[in-house]
Amino acid sequence: MAKKKEISKEITDLKKELVDDKVLVGKDVVLKNLKNEKLSKIYLASNCPEKTIADIKYYSDLAKVPIVALKLNNEELGVFCKKHFFISVLGIKK
Q1: Are 94 and 39 in contact (CB under 8 A)?
Q2: Who has greater pLDDT, 70 or 1?
Q3: Which residues, 6 or more positions from 84, have their beta carbon under 8 angstroms from its beta carbon?
Q4: Which letter, b or e, does each residue of 45-69 get, where b requires 16 or more Cβ atoms within 10 Å of its Cβ?
Q5: How many CB atoms within 10 Å of residue 7?
Q6: I need a surface site. Which of 63, 65, 80, 83 has the fewest CB within 10 A?
Q7: Which residue has the higher pLDDT, 16 or 56?
Q8: What CA–CA distances, in Å, run from 49 to 8, 27, 45, 74, 88?
Q9: Beta bridge pairs of residue 70
């Protein structure tokens, strides 16, 4: 019998945001909105590139926006968001 994966609180919160259509996808879009202080939270895939993590961490510290590191890799995050491409960075609009 297969083990049931434990669903974390972050995943359930992200699912609610996807339903509410408040999610921005991609590093460039997230950084642009982060600089303009239009985001409330950022989600990163487990295998997000180090350069991207460093850039987002810098601007999120300035804007005081929390970062959530997910256990999903970018392929699994793309499937979770029902997209046909890999996703490393997600931003939640205020």
Answers
A1: yes
A2: 70
A3: 78
A4: beebeeebeebbeebbeeeebeebe
A5: 9
A6: 83
A7: 56
A8: 23, 10, 9, 10, 8
A9: none
pLDDT band at 4 (very low <50, low <70, confident <90, very high): very low
Q: Which CATH class is domain 9-93?
A: alpha beta
> Which residue, among 91, 56, 57, 89, has the nearest Cα to 73 in the 3D structure?
89
Could you tell me the residue ranges of all domains in the chain?
A: 9-93
pTM as predicted:
0.86
Phi, psi angle pair for 86, to nearest 5°: -75, 145
Mean pLDDT across the stretch 76-93? 92
